[in-house]
Known about the structure:
Blueprint: E1 8-12, H1 18-28, H2 31-34, H3 40-50, E2 62-67, E3 72-86, E4 89-101, H4 110-125, E5 129-132, E6 145-150, E7 156-157, E8 169-173, H5 179-189, E9 195-196, H6 201-210, E10 219-226, E11 229-237, E12 245-253, H7 259-277, E13 286-289, H8 296-300, E14 310-315, H9 319-325, H10 327-336, E15 345-349, E16 353-360, E17 363-371, E18 384-385, H11 388-395, H12 401-407, E19 412-413, H13 416-425
Parallel strand pairs: 4-5, 12-13, 15-18
Antiparallel strand pairs: 1-2, 2-3, 3-4, 3-9, 5-14, 6-14, 7-13, 8-10, 10-11, 11-12, 15-16, 16-17, 18-19
Helix pairs in contact: 1-3, 5-6
Bound molecules: coenzyme A.
Amino acid sequence: MSSHADRYLVRPGRASDGAELSRLQAAVQLQPKTGGSPHSGIAAWVDGLMSGDHPSVKPDDFLVVEERSTGRPVASLVSLRQDWRLAGLRLPVTQVELVGTDPEHRGHRLAQRLFAALHERCAADGVPIQMIEGIPYFYRRLGYDYALSNGGASAVPAAALPAPEDRGMVVRPATVADATALARVDERVGDDGALVCPRDAAVWRHEIAGRASADLVRRQVTVLANGDEVRGYLVHGARLYAGGELAVFAAACERPADWPTATAAMYAYLGDAGRRYATADRPFTAIHPILDVDHPLARFGPAGVPRRARAWYVRTGDPIDLLGRLAPVLRARWAAAGLRWPVSELVIDTYGRAARLRFTDGELAAVTPAPGAADPSTDPGTHAAIPPDAVLQLALGYRTLAEVLDAWPDCLLRDRLTERFLAAAFPRVPNRLWTRT
Ligand SMILES: CC(C)(COP(=O)(O)OP(=O)(O)OC[C@H]1O[C@@H](n2cnc3c(N)ncnc32)[C@H](O)[C@@H]1OP(=O)(O)O)[C@@H](O)C(=O)NCCC(=O)NCCS
């Protein structure tokens, strides 16, 4: 772990840091919302993460800056490890949360040091992707770029919600007895090639019943059922947002054919939940799905009021390694498109380092790193020159090749064949993530 021969030391969190980190984070996060007082929802979230009862987070998933003279934590972040699936491929990810520095210690590059330590740890642990929602622009300075959509589905005004009707499908609150069935649904929902964040039964139990009621990221998990059979789920906020909106974080159906009926049942349920949460000073106004614009719940639901999609910041320390991990997906996509590469190598240069994609009989056999060309734009051995951030956007299916070519003049392709190959390799990927916090 990195340390600095100065006033501060960067180290992993310890169980004994619990009370201090809870106090620190509650005092620095979301202060405009509390008017400067500690945020009880943040404190409860940190307490839950540090408790030892969380299914995947341990105290040393926090990184802490300690002031040497006092031994006190003065800045911290937490790294929330999770495995996503991208078109069926396991993709280890760290979601970074609770980044905060005590106001008296700001401006000493403590956030920067925490991120440097985090990136070192991710490289050592083989976690290729780091992501954070974060302050606009700030994380660009730490090597992040926007590369995952975050929301974008229309908000549905309360008055436009359907009344419940009896069409066989019901939505009801989940209990821990549903956890195994929900994990089974998660195993199926990435089958269409989407980007998903599956939960196993232990994690579902935690989401359903393991969080303190004040925990900022506690959600209400409900089950889509047909009689006794669990066919999907709907996850919404445990309270109304300012403005009276009820957020939806996830919706899934095990069988795609269920969506039209499921959507009607889900929106009717959400209307009931929104009215239940309403108070005299916070009336229920709308459902706000924090889902992609093309999510089935949005497509089959009532027309709403369009919302601009936001995005997550994403970083990878090694775009060549990321391309190598994607090899099975690339191979499958080229096979599905009936494409075979005619020579033994396809070289993608990322302006510094290059990926050599080796082919046997037209099929991808391996991806190996190599030094980049001095000038990839003119190098005769280079098929494509793609800046690293554009590789990240393509790899996650956030932007298509055509969009990257349009936005990045330094994304260069040698010929039409390369363009056809890379367009088939990197389609837009539906984002169905409900990330783990
Ligand atoms: C954001 C925060 C963690 C930065 O901590 P820090 O240890 O002072 O960070 P660093 O010293 O590494 O970087 C400081 C730089 O970030 C900038 N910065 C800090 N907060 C910022 C904000 N909200 N928006 C834009 N820039 C910001 C500072 O102006 C400074 O810029 P400079 O280098 O040009 O002077 C700290 O201000 C904080 O705790 N804020 C409240 C909690 C929060 O918003 N956390 C982030 C949630 S994603």
